[in-house]
């Protein structure tokens, strides 16, 4: 079967996400994990600004957010972002810098944001006919890839990702983002797997994009602001009846090699990893590049000169 079946498309449209087991072969999983460990082992700490990844607590839009130059200029590079809990509370007295309490390979939160162009193993997983066929099944006309990253939920310190909608971070007018989320290791209840609110991408379930994560006007950092543009993708009802309830929350049990497709308006989260097992995942996002959709200039991530990558090269 090329692309998704009609039943899979219906499930995605109804729930806002779709799990595709065994999407990656064992060889692709091994290649991705080998590349991840090589990247973790070989990057240098000496010139690294020790940027910690955080977008706040998910409730307070005025909370601290990552926003230094190392982060804001990472859209066409491979860069490393640390877990806040990987450091001592006081700086090293000799260097004046925060001190890691874990080996560097166990302290990184994520590697991003252009693995799909700069890492051959991840490029092979990302830019291919199989994914282009899936995107076509979802209605994309000119699918473009951006924000690729390995998310590393490290044992005992892998930080929580608060409830959010991806189109808050990668806004197009109108919204069009869909996440491709690959489990490189098992993601199960107990080791910070994904929690998805079924149907929460719909207007009737409060699926509107009401806020956006953007660069500050003065360029110094990032912030959440009110969204004044379209709040739902084309063709979706504008009604707002109620928000998602606790009964809508599904904690996924995902085997390594599975692909989870995530609608840009669906509410989802992951908890802190308190288990002894790591939870590595690779993800990138697809937006519509065709005429009639505009990528916003205030988004934290901006395209390189050549534009975002076409899904099929």
From TrEMBL:
Keywords: Dioxygenase, Iron, Metal-binding, Oxidoreductase. It comes from the Eukaryota. Its cofactor is Fe cation. It holds the Pfam family PhyH. The keyword Hydrolase does not apply. Residues 226-245 are annotated as: Disordered. GO terms for molecular function: dioxygenase activity; metal ion binding. SUPFAM superfamilies: Clavaminate synthase-like. InterPro entries: Phytyl_CoA_dOase-like. Belongs to the PhyH family. PANTHER family: PHYTANOYL-COA DIOXYGENASE DOMAIN CONTAINING 1, PHYTANOYL-COA DIOXYGENASE DOMAIN-CONTAINING PROTEIN 1. This is Phytanoyl-CoA dioxygenase domain-containing protein 1.
């Amino acid at each position: 079967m090329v692309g998704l079946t009609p039943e899979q498309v219906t499930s995605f449209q109804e729930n806002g996400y779709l799990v595709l087991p065994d999407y990656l072969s064992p060889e692709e999983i091994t290649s991705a994990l080998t590349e991840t460990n090589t990247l973790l082992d070989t990057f240098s700490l000496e010139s690294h600004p020790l940027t910690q990844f955080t977008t706040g607590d998910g409730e307070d839009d005025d909370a601290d957010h990552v926003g230094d130059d190392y982060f804001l200029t990472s859209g066409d590079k491979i860069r490393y972002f640390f877990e806040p809990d990987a450091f001592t509370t006081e700086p090293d007295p000799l260097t004046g810098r925060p001190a890691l309490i874990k080996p560097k390979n166990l302290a990184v939160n994520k590697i991003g944001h252009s693995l799909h162009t700069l890492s051959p193993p991840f490029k092979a997983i990302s830019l291919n006919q199989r994914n282009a066929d899936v995107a076509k099944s979802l209605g994309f006309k000119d699918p473009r890839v951006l924000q690729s990253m390995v998310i590393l939920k490290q044992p005992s310190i892998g930080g929580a990702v608060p409830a959010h909608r991806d189109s808050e971070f990668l806004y197009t007018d109108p919204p069009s983002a869909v996440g491709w989320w690959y489990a490189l290791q098992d993601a199960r209840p107990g080791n910070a797997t994904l929690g998805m609110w079924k149907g929460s991408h719909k207007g009737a379930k409060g699926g509107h994009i009401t806020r956006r994560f953007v660069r500050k006007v003065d360029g110094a950092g990032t912030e959440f602001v009110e969204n004044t543009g379209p709040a739902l993708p084309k063709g979706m009802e504008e009604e707002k009846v109620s928000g998602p309830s606790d009964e809508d929350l599904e904690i996924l049990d995902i085997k390594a090699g599975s692909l989870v497709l995530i609608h840009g308006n669906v509410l989802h989260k992951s908890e802190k990893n308190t288990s002894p097992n790591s939870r590595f995942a690779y993800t990138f996002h697809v937006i519509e590049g065709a005429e009639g959709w505009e990528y916003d200039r205030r988004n934290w991530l901006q395209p390189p000169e050549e534009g975002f990558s076409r899904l099929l090269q």
